[in-house]
Design goal:
CATH class: Mainly Beta
CATH topology: outer membrane lipoprotein receptor (LolB), chain A
Structural class: mainly beta
Distance between the termini: 20 Å
Number of strands: 12
Number of helices: 2
CATH architecture: Clam
Low-confidence stretches: 17-26, 114-127
CATH superfamily: Lipoprotein localisation LolA/LolB/LppX
Length: 217
């Protein structure tokens, strides 16, 4: 598992950290964007269970993982992948830990480095994602209200993002890359406003594992 393969999880936290739709962003005063702004403005913490599926352009399921996620503004998040393999990606707002249990390895990076030009770079909150992604439109399917965004940059990792809201709750996020592969993240058992201590996001390195710290390189 390389750092770039964690981008879907990181991108989701871009939304959770509230940098998607700032006042004055492109897209005007569309009701769907107002829904998203309200959702983000009213949320300071979140706990949820997640399922992450990777689907090929031929609709073949390449990966199916499950686990738990938590975040706390500003910039703190933790993904615990529990099935089929144990992995953790966690940040206290200053550092990011990537733990792969099967490799007995932890990679530590500074929060604001190593993200390059991917949408994950927006985790810093310094840039509105709508500078890089344009609002395409919204549609309703059954009980789901979908918001669609498209990349402005040809070299972007992701061509499009679809956000699915049900009864005002963000439950589904579909990320489509330039090759047509799609990452589908579904949230459930959502608890907004949970009391989460800051220490939860500082990953405790298990004894005996290899540590790769970019500050030592």
């Amino acid at each position: 598992m390389t750092y770039s393969q964690y981008v879907p999880a990181l991108l989701l936290m871009t939304f959770a950290c509230g940098v998607l739709a700032q006042p004055g962003a492109s897209g005007g005063d569309d009701p769907s964007l107002r829904l998203l702004r309200t959702y983000l403005d009213e949320m300071s913490t979140l706990r949820a269970e997640f399922r992450q599926e990777v689907i090929s352009r031929d609709l073949e399921r390449l990966e199916d993982t499950r686990g738990r996620v938590a975040f706390k503004k500003p910039g703190r998040f933790r993904w615990d992948y529990l099935e089929p393999f144990e992995r953790v990606i966690s940040s206290d707002g200053e550092r990011v830990w990537l733990y792969e249990a099967d490799l007995e390895q932890v990679t530590i990076r500074r929060f604001d480095s190593g993200l390059g030009a991917t949408p994950a770079a927006l985790l810093t909150g310094a840039t509105d994602i709508l500078v890089h992604f344009r609002f395409v439109g919204a549609r309703s399917e059954d009980s789901i209200r979908w918001l669609s965004l498209a990349s402005r940059a040809p070299e972007s990792d992701f061509a499009g993002i679809d956000l699915g809201f049900t009864d005002g709750e963000l439950l589904q996020i579909f990320l489509t890359d330039r090759l047509g592969q799609q990452t589908r993240i579904t949230l459930s058992a959502i608890d907004r406003g949970a009391d989460i201590d800051d220490a939860f996001f500082r990953f405790e390195v298990p004894p005996g594992v290899d540590v790769i710290d970019e500050d030592d390189i």
